[in-house]
Design goal:
alpha/beta, 4-stranded mixed sheet, globular, binds inosinic acid, binds magnesium ion
């Protein structure tokens, strides 16, 4: 519900127990979803976070698939994970040439660089829009998405395009061969599979990547990612009817972080942000970059609640604020002398607004060892009131066990 990194990995792993399958519908290996079990840290980029619960794993057509990264990710997981994985044939592939293009574009932007993860995600979706991207099914000798299986001749325009941009794509065919073996036996129709699972009485958890405010249409464009992060993308990203998209659970962190460039109204600097970063391990799970830290932004969150139609939320990282004396929540933005609670109204001026804060309580020394402490109860009441949602899950530590259902 914010700028990503709200703790989706942990929450998805926790919830996956109650589902038969977990399906990713957006993003690519720019995502970093962390799951900690018994002190051991697992970071997923493409594999859905239900992998460690032995669930069926689905990667929908809306995902930009980097076959090389997928292979690397699967190689450190038990072999059973690969057997449970299906990748949609319509997934656009991310190539090393897209990564090069990502770097070239960032350099061209100079001081207005986005601070992308450099995983080639923007270029891959752009290549899809240009009808130049290869799809997973293109690597199969036989498939039902093309009138006749595509031959290497059919991607000569793709190679020419990279060459025009000055990107050396002479080893394109070796990348294709490498990718073919990486996804061998994994390709199928994810939308159909979801419908089958549901028709036989099963259930599927849909896992998003990134956050609402990084959506390329509804977030802080151009400082956004390149695939849709809002709930509305679920049916399109998976190939299922809207009626099968279910009810969203919004995930938010009790403070805010952002990695990469772009406006961040509640950003804080100095000792408090350093403390939060170190206690909360606020470093990008994909790039290792230190995350920018800020206070809870209720103006932005109300926008995310409305846009996604969220009624239930999970709140993460409450334990981190046990180490911080102060607690602040931004209740309005001040801009050109007046105050507003309307995020959309100021979306184009996010870099210039002044946050108006409230400090209704502190969470310092809240102890979660014997259930929900009074400080957390106050926070939950406050949040429910401010956002008009129900808090149904609280996470107060990395481990699965550090979760409270309400
Ligand atoms: P890209 O998605 O790599 O093009 O990066 C675009 C912007 O989205 C940058 O600010 C990234 O830091 C941010 N971003 C992309 N993926 C994630 C994520 O999974 N979590 C948080 N930020 C992300
Ligand atoms: Mg992350």
């Amino acid at each position: 519900m914010q700028w990503g990194d709200e703790g989706k990995g942990k929450i998805v792993d926790y919830l996956a127990g109650g589902f038969d399958a977990v399906a990713r519908f957006n993003g690519g290996s720019n995502a970093g979803h962390t799951v900690v079990i018994g002190g051991e840290k697992h970071t997923f980029h493409l594999v859905p976070s239900g992998a460690l619960k032995g669930k069926q794993l689905l990667i929908g057509a809306g995902v930009a698939l980097d076959p090389v990264i997928l292979r690397r990710e699967l190689s450190i997981l038990p072999a059973s994970v690969r057997r449970k994985l299906m990748v949609d044939g319509r997934c656009s592939l991310v190539s090393p040439f897209d990564k090069e293009l990502d770097a070239v574009l960032e350099q061209m932007r100079g001081s207005s660089a986005i601070g992308t993860t450099m995983r080639g995600i923007g270029p891959a979706y752009a290549m899809r829009a240009l009808r130049l991207a290869l799809r997973a099914s293109d690597l199969l000798h036989e498939n039902n998405l093309h009138p006749s299986p595509r031959s290497s001749a059919s991607w000569s325009a793709t190679i020419k395009f990279y060459s025009r941009l000055g990107i050396d794509a002479s080893n394109f065919s070796s990348w294709v061969e490498d990718s073919r073996s990486a996804i061998e036996g994994l390709v199928g129709d994810v939308g159909e599979r979801i419908i089958e699972i549901k028709q036989s009485g099963g259930s599927v958890l849909f896992e998003a990547a990134q956050g609402t405010l990084l959506d390329p249409l509804y977030g802080s464009y151009p400082y956004s990612t390149s695939s849709h992060t809002v709930v509305g993308y679920i049916p399109a990203g998976l190939g299922i009817p809207m009626s099968e998209a279910g009810e969203p659970l919004g995930i938010l962190k009790c403070y805010t972080t952002r990695v990469g460039e772009g406006p961040f109204p509640t950003e804080i600097a100095g000792p408090i942000s350093n403390l939060v970063r170190s206690v909360g391990h606020e470093y990008g799970a994909t790039t290792g970059r230190p995350r920018r830290v800020g206070w809870l932004d209720l103006v932005a969150l109300r926008y995310a609640v409305r846009l996604n139609g969220v009624k239930n939320v999970a709140v993460s990282k409450l334990d981190v604020l046990s180490s911080v004396k102060e607690f602040k929540a931004c209740v309005a933005y001040r801009y050109l002398g007046s105050e507003t609670r309307d995020f959309l109204h100021l979306l184009g001026h996010l870099g210039e607004v002044q946050p108006v804060y409230e400090s209704p309580f502190t969470m310092k020394d809240a102890d979660y060892n014997s259930g929900l402490p009074p400080q957390a109860k106050k926070f939950i009441d406050y949040l429910q009131d401010a956002l008009n949602v129900r808090v149904s899950l609280v996470s107060h530590g990395e481990e699965r066990s550090r979760t409270i259902e309400l």
